[in-house]
């Protein structure tokens, strides 16, 4: 994948020409019906939808507009987008409190004395540990502007569990599907009903089956390993992963991969939906870029003890948040206040929404008192129970170059410890071992290359992990400082989660071991990890492999840091209508809202809850009339 990264950065300078560099609009002391903080998959669609319904909306975005940056707009450049200083925010996290375990993480990042990054376990003298790189995006459209565009409706049980937990049947999988149909503009054939008039283009990726002999062999073997016949392979590769098939939570084997890109290969995302809504110049949507929300403003209502959110304090200026690689402590920004006559809605994402809540006096009493922040609402769940998918992979080198093009094919797998399918994977001619500055190119190559044309990987995402113990804490009361994040990987349910991932790896080995090993064939495959050696002839113990998975797992799908829950749940920050408890006029709508990680990729479900929040808010207004 190195050529893509190199090519993308070569063309980036061309793409940046013509991007909007206009100063943010004058918003200080103005009043709007709604203020939405964050333009990603949660906030962007919600702001555009409310404006299209006729309500005045101010959308605050700390980043700028990179919608015409070719690293962003051309979806196959997603690794370049993730490394582009114009779009990325650099977070560094811990996976545990075990210092020795953290030191064994192969892609740990350090800051060298010259200011450059070092990635590895043998840093040069004087280098300071930063932690494990966790990619985020600070730009119009949020993380949907640098992701791989995989678009997955979670398993039905993920939605049904929210309905059962809260007693709110509007969260059922059957009802939530209507929001998928509402937002999507599907460009592929399916046996299931889909939407074709929404703002989000979706297409089905080519598996390479028709054009590449290697792809045919590999996908056919995977289909057989999942219990299907050879003749089933072509139909499996167009099977709709976002369909509403009976018993869909237990359907395994190859699927067609759905992505939020249009038929011309251009990324489709909330960033474009917001941009286009503003450009029409007929809806009351004000977009304030380069505007960092720093605190929610509250006032006493006089009717009860709950305070009401009435506005937001902010700083305006470029690259003010310290996670932005272009940030400078010397750039102080211009402060201001803006007001909402109806509601403030936080959609900063799983890290920044809880940070803003804490800075505003909403969170655990002991956390707020530590920083001498006046308490508005004592909500213990704001910085606790952060969840994430575990990600891993089985990376091998074939005996000759793998010819599948740039195509991938997805699979679902059900482990022996899963009640439903619990592993999603995508396989192809790539190498992906996690995230670090310069990923996916190897640190050993000085970030200029990968493992070459023989590389073949199945990357795994463990859905519905049992551990949900991550924490997000303030570093200081300075809103420009990134929070301190500990994902607490495998703190709970370690054996079951490691077993699920290990069995997924073993399943891949089961069919890679059957690849043609004759003259000119792809086999044998030399596995690089998690068990080095010729596939079928390795001698690694299960315990050794599980230890490798535990120490080298990575992630980038954080959720649940301000989660929805039942009324009696002391860790529930939100009710089922996204309202922040113990205050009025404040909601949170983004990945932080989910009670647990939604499926394998949170981008689509977050867009779906954005549509649901639109309905909830508009219906509430209708009920008032």
UniProtKB/TrEMBL annotation:
The keyword Nucleotide-binding does not apply. It comes from the Eukaryota. Belongs to the GMC oxidoreductase family. Residues 1-22 form the signal peptide. The keyword NADP does not apply. InterPro entries: FAD/NAD-bd_sf, GMC_OxRdtase, GMC_OxRdtase_N, GMC_OxRtase_C. Keywords: Signal. It comes from Bimuria novae-zelandiae CBS 107.79. This is Alcohol oxidase. It holds the Pfam family GMC_oxred_N. Residues 349-363 form the Glucose-methanol-choline oxidoreductase N-terminal domain. GO terms for molecular function: flavin adenine dinucleotide binding; oxidoreductase activity, acting on CH-OH group of donors.
């Amino acid at each position: 994948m190195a050529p893509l990264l190199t090519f993308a950065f070569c063309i980036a300078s061309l793409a940046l020409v013509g991007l909007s560099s206009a100063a943010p609009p004058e918003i200080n002391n103005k009043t709007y019906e709604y203020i939405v903080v964050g333009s990603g998959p949660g906030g962007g669609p919600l702001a555009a939808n409310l404006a299209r319904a006729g309500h005045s909306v101010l959308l605050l975005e700390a980043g700028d507009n990179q919608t015409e940056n070719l690293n962003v707009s051309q979806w196959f450049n997603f690794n370049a987008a993730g490394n582009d200083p114009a779009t990325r925010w650099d977070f560094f996290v811990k996976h545990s409190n075990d210092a020795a375990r953290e030191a064994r993480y192969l892609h740990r990042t350090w800051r060298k004395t010259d200011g450059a990054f070092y990635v590895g376990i043998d840093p040069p003298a004087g280098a300071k540990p930063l932690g494990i790189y966790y990619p985020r995006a600070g730009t119009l459209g949020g993380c949907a502007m640098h992701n791989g565009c995989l678009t997955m409706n979670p398993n039905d049980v993920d939605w049904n569990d929210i309905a059962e937990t809260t007693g709110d049947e509007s969260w059922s999988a059957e009802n939530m599907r209507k929001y998928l149909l509402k937002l999507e503009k599907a460009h592929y054939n399916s046996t299931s009903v889909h939407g074709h008039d929404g703002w989000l283009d979706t297409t089905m990726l080519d598996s390479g089956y028709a054009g590449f002999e290697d792809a045919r062999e590999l996908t056919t073997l995977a289909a057989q390993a999942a219990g299907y016949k050879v003749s089933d392979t072509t139909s499996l590769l167009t099977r709709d992963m976002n369909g509403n098939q009976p018993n869909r939570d237990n359907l395994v084997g190859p699927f067609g991969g759905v992505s939020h890109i249009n038929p011309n290969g251009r990324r489709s995302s909330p960033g474009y939906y917001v941009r286009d809504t503003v450009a029409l110049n007929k809806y009351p949507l004000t977009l304030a870029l380069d505007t960092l929300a720093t605190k929610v403003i509250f006032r006493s209502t006089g009717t009860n003890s709950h305070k009401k959110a009435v506005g937001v304090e902010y700083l305006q200026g470029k690259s003010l948040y310290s996670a932005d690689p272009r940030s400078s402590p010397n750039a102080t920004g211009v402060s201001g206040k803006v007001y909402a006559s109806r509601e403030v809605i936080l959609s900063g994402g799983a890290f920044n929404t809880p940070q803003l809540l804490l800075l505003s006096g909403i969170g655990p009493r002991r956390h707020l008192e530590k920083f001498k922040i006046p308490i508005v609402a004592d909500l213990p769940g704001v910085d606790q129970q952060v969840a994430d998918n575990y990600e891993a992979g089985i990376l091998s080198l074939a005996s000759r170059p793998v010819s599948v093009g740039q195509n991938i094919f997805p699979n679902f797998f059900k482990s022996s410890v899963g009640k439903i399918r619990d592993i999603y994977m995508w396989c192809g001619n790539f190498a992906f071992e996690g995230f670090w500055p310069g990923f996916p190119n190897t640190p050993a190559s000085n970030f200029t290359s990968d493992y070459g044309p023989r590389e073949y990987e199945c990357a795994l995402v463990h859905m519905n992990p049992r551990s949900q113990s991550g924490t997000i804490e303030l570093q200081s009361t300075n809103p420009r400082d990134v929070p301190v994040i500990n994902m607490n990987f495998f703190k709970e349910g370690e054996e079951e989660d490691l077993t699920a991932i290990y069995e997924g790896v073993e399943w891949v080995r089961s069919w890679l071991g059957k690849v043609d090993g004759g003259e000119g064939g792809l086999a044998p495959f030399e596995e690089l990890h998690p068990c080095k050696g010729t596939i079928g002839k390795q001698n690694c113990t299960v315990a050794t492999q599980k230890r490798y998975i535990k120490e080298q797992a990575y992630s980038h799908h954080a959720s649940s840091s301000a989660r929805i829950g039942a009324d009696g749940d002391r860790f529930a920050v939100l009710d089922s209508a996204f309202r922040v408890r113990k205050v009025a006029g404040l909601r949170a709508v983004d990945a932080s809202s989910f009670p647990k990680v939604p499926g394998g990729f949170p981008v689509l479900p977050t867009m779906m809850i954005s549509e649901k929040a639109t309905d909830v808010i508009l219906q509430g207004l209708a009920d008032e009339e």
